[in-house]
Amino acid sequence: QVQLVESGGGLVQAGGSLRLSCAASGRTVNTYGMGWFRQAPGKEREFVAATRWSGDGTYYADSAKDRFTISTDSAKLTAYLQMNSLKPEDTAVYYCAASFAYGLAPTDFGSWGQGTQVTVSS
């Protein structure tokens, strides 16, 4: 039983930055890490980034590499996604998820936030 509350989405111009936050609560002791996914209209959910609470390993989709940074604050039970150099194609609903396996494969994520809209204007 893990609850995730996201914040930080909004409208930003291309080239700008946005920082998403995801506060976790509940039985977070059962989770290995946190991940970010996104889903654009008419498209499948897409993996963006993931990391472990322990700091062991950080993973990014090619589309996010070098522009996005995932981080966690285990004391605050919060995950972040710093997004820089945003592009219109980054427009999507971004979801925070908690993983229940060490591998951090997309199928390992079992608890999801409500999603926060990120819109990047050209």
3D structure, described in words:
It contains no helices and eleven strands. The chain has 122 residues and is mainly β. The strands form two sheets. Strands 2, 4, 5, 6, 9, 10 and 11 form a seven-stranded mixed beta sheet that branches. The protein has a four-stranded antiparallel beta sheet with strand order 1-3-8-7, with no helix packed on it. The protein is globular and about 40 Å long.
| Stretches with pLDDT under 50, minimum 5 residues | none
Radius of gyration from CA coordinates: 13 Å
Mean pLDDT over all positions: 95
What fraction, in percent, of the residue positions are helical? under 10%
| Intertermini distance | 40 Å
Number of strands: 11
SSE string: EEEEEEEEEEE
Percent strand equals over 45%
The number of distinct helices, counting runs of at least 4 residues, comes to: 0
Structural class: mainly beta
What would the principal axes of the Cα set say about the shape? globular
Query: For the report, how would you describe the main beta sheet?
Result: 7 strands, mixed
Write the layout of secondary structure elements.
Blueprint: E1 2-7, E2 10-13, E3 18-26, E4 33-39, E5 46-52, E6 58-60, E7 68-73, E8 78-83, E9 92-99, E10 109-112, E11 116-121
Parallel strand pairs: 2-11
Antiparallel strand pairs: 1-3, 3-8, 4-5, 4-9, 5-6, 7-8, 9-10, 9-11
